[in-house]
Amino acid sequence: MVRVLHYFVDLLSRIHACHVHLVTHRDLKPQNVLIRPVDGLEIGDFGFVRTLLFPIQKYTQDVITLWYRGPELLLGRPLYGPEVDLWSPGCIFAEMATSQPTFPGGSDIGTFFKIM
Questions:
Q1: Pfam families from the entry (predicted)?
Q2: Is the predicted pLDDT of residue 11 greater than 80, yes or no?
Q3: How far apart are the C-alpha atoms of 23 and 5, rounded to whole Å?
Q4: Which of 27, 45, 62, 108 is catalytic?
Q5: CA–CA distance, 104 with 92 (Å, rounded to integer)
Q6: Per-residue pLDDT tens digits for 39-83
Q7: 62 labelled catalytic
Q8: Average per-residue pLDDT in the chain?
């Protein structure tokens, strides 16, 4: 469990580095987290990245793989910022600790009901 916690802190540190550079990843999931035995953790697949603009712009809600998408996106919120990258690490952490997906829904509403 100590190793999982170390990876979780490392993931949050990497996300923080993205946000400091005004970048939102928008697709954090286990498949996009690369674990290196020596160097620690890396984030991959920056295909959905957006540079943060102020004021906050309207973006599509169809980002972040369904099981790792936060409630605000599942409910269709069009205005969001870096906070959308914070729900996913919690889901990833729980999955690493239990070896089971946390909220494996088949649709937006199905995933939302699993969360509730």
A1: Pkinase
A2: yes
A3: 24
A4: 27
A5: 12
A6: 778 999 988 888 877 776 777 767 788 999 999 889 988 888 888
A7: no
A8: 88
Report which residue type is found at 7. Y
pTM for this model (two decimals): 0.84
Q: Which residues pair with 34 in a beta bridge?
A: 42
Assess whether pLDDT exceeds 90 at residue 28: yes
State how far the Cα of 5 lies from the Cα of 93, in Å rounded to an integer: 8
DSSP annotation string for the chain: -HHHHHHHHHHHHHHHHHHHTTEE-----GGGEEEETTTEEEE---TT-EE--SSPPB--S--S-GGG--HHHHTT--B--TTHHHHHHHHHHHHHHHSS-S---SSHHHHHHHH-
Q: Residues 26, 48: contact at Cβ < 8 Å? A: yes
**Residue among 27, 18, 30 at smallest CA distance from 94:** 30
Amino acid (1-letter code) at residue 5: L
